[in-house]
Amino acid sequence: MIKARIRKRLGSFTLEAEFEARSGVTVLFGASGAGKTLALDCIAGFRRPDEGRVLLDDAILFDAAARVNVPPQARRCGYVFQNYALFPHMTLRQNLEFAVEPLPRLERHRRVNEMIEKFKLGDAVVRRPAELSGGQKQRGSIARALLASPKLLLLDEPARGLDAPLRADLYEVLRQVRAEFALPIILVTHDLDEGCQLGDEMLIMSQGRIVQSGPPANIVAQPANLDVARLLGQYNLLPAEILQLDPQRGTSVLRVLEHEIPGRYYPGHFKGDRVWLCVRHSSLTARPLEGRLAPDEVPVTLDRVSTRARGVLLEFAEGLAVEAAQADNRKQWVVTFPPAALHVLSK
Amino acid sequence: MSIDWSPLWLSLKVAALSTSVSVVLGVALAWLLARRTFRGRDLLDAGVMLPLVLPPTVLGYYLLVLLGRESALGHLYELVFGQPLVFTWQAAVVAAMFHSLPLLVKWSRAALESVDHNYEWAARSLGASEWRTFWRVSLPLAGRSIAAAAALSFARALGDFGVTIMIAGNIPGQTQTVSVAIYDAVESGNGAVARTLVVVVSLVAVVILTLANRISRPASVEAAQ
Lengths: 347, 225
Fold this sequence. Notes:
The complex is a heterodimer.
Chain A: E1 2-10, E2 13-21, E3 24-30, H1 36-44, E4 51-56, E5 59-63, E6 68-69, E7 77-80, H2 92-98, H3 105-118, H4 134-147, E8 152-156, H5 164-180, E9 184-189, H6 192-198, E10 201-206, E11 209-214, H7 216-221, H8 226-232, E12 235-246, E13 251-256, E14 259-264, E15 274-280, E16 285-288, E17 297-307, E18 312-316, E19 321-324, E20 332-336, E21 343-346
Parallel strand pairs in A: 3-9, 3-10, 7-8, 8-9
Antiparallel strand pairs in A: 1-2, 1-4, 4-5, 5-6, 10-11, 12-13, 12-15, 13-14, 15-21, 16-20, 17-18, 17-20, 18-19
Chain B: H1 6-35, H2 41-53, H3 56-67, H4 72-81, H5 89-113, H6 117-125, H7 130-158, H8 162-167, H9 178-187, H10 191-224
Helix pairs in contact in B: 1-5, 1-7, 1-9, 2-5, 5-7, 6-7, 7-10, 9-10
């Protein structure tokens, strides 16, 4: 298990993060420039934090107060770089052997061959990185990091710039690593889908701070605040007012888009609170305006329709967006707000 | 016209020796300046570059004071090698070194700095010591550029005049390097000798320059990948 509390200034940017990661995949999610890579570099020992402590299992890797700063060589943190950083002047086999050089010859050979087999690198090992396919480079760099018997694996956006099939391969490899090696894996990404697919735990990072942590499903179901919701980027965020709260029945009434709709009970909020209504694009349904409105329905005007990988996104004049299978070009629609899917965030 | 070729051979010998020493010293200095942070780094940087901006006679004067027979270093040298350093061809090696080292450091430093630090970080995260990281990763990746720098510094070592004449003098057949010989020939009205030597030295320079370009070019292609 890794525990870190890091403060590091770099120019005008300040990283101030505290987190831990257990066996399994912990996803460090955030926009570009949020400080994710800097956090990894501080853990690996490439950069020295100004303050804080880094603990890996029982070993102190860094402690500013006690002036402990273990050099990267001795930290046993495997690091998979964004560009893989396979040494360009060595063959893939030489790259792998580099990681086990201190071992006796036979042992070295056995370990390298084992990895070559495990990561299906077979014929590729005689080639240099420039002659390897994207997938081979990616598997090769993970194999190389694991050969050094790390106690922690750090991956810096390994899927960046890969096309969909390679991405799927990488996810498969990472699942394999997760299953076969009992070590914490910290995966940096700015792709929410990737984070949700691979992460056992997720840390949301924004402007150098961890703003929310937990299992990905929980975070997506209920972003802690407006920043997180914006960062995850698949929510409708609408100004709303809580008109009624009924703790006995567990219900409420919200005013949103000048309509009153039923909601859940929101502990910690008061009647009259002005809040943000937060609801996923995929939780809402839309139908063309016909007949009478149900209590949880709100009439809206269609602004435009944008095509997505799956289905379309209906964007309405009121700043509302709804995922749908298909669209037609009618102007007047009705959107259903299912009470169970409605979250509120304090303003 | 009979030409004494000994100054040319002497110059080649002096340049070869001084380059060998310079490469070891220069790459070590370049690595220190490129990859380490320590107190007095700026001072070291300035000190290494000083010979580039000092007039050669000034530099030669300093060396004369520092290495002369009266100085501590001069004494030590005489004790170890049984002869004084100044006004011998070995002094010409020292002169050539001071002439070529600053640029060698500058170029080697640029070469080392152009190595993507991720490779060095990767090596360290795999448990490689600083020493192993340098020999197995940094140096091979910067190798071509450093070799080109060494070739250029050889060419530069061939051409020193000012420092050489100050500390090695102009003893024909002993300390007279080719640049000094050319000066000598012009001075004594021996135009034919001067012209021949000038042409030969120019040719050598062009050959080395071409060689250096050849060596360094594939490296830039590799770096682009």
